[in-house]
Design brief:
The chain contains three helices and two strands, in the order αααββ. It has helices at residues 4-13, 23-41, 72-76; strands at residues 82-83, 86-87.
């Protein structure tokens, strides 16, 4: 089950605004999704042959044309936090 603190942490990591009255609703929705995923993982597939789908489409690449880069100040103007001319991010993985 996803609790309120986890919902708030997810939104904080994504730098998204979260209204207080939506936290319980989102926790319930996330829990339903995770419960459904867990239910799917319990399906016995021991006698099911793997299905391979090979598409015969060709990847179409565009020509790589060098262009002038975005100005550093312009790129960083909406950064929540920056340091030494770069984006500064919180450590997410311990």
């Amino acid at each position: 089950m996803i609790n309120k603190e986890e919902v708030i942490r997810i939104y904080d990591l994504a730098h998204l605004n979260l209204e207080e009255d939506r936290v319980d609703i989102l926790a319930e929705k996330y829990t339903k999704v995770l419960d459904f995923a867990e239910l799917i993982m319990e399906v016995d597939t021991t006698n099911v042959k793997p299905l391979e789908m090979i598409q015969e489409e060709k990847a179409v690449f565009r020509e790589d044309i060098p262009e002038e880069s975005l100005d550093r100040e312009k790129a960083l103007e909406n950064a929540k936090d920056r340091e030494y001319g770069y984006f500064r991010l919180k450590k997410v993985i311990d």
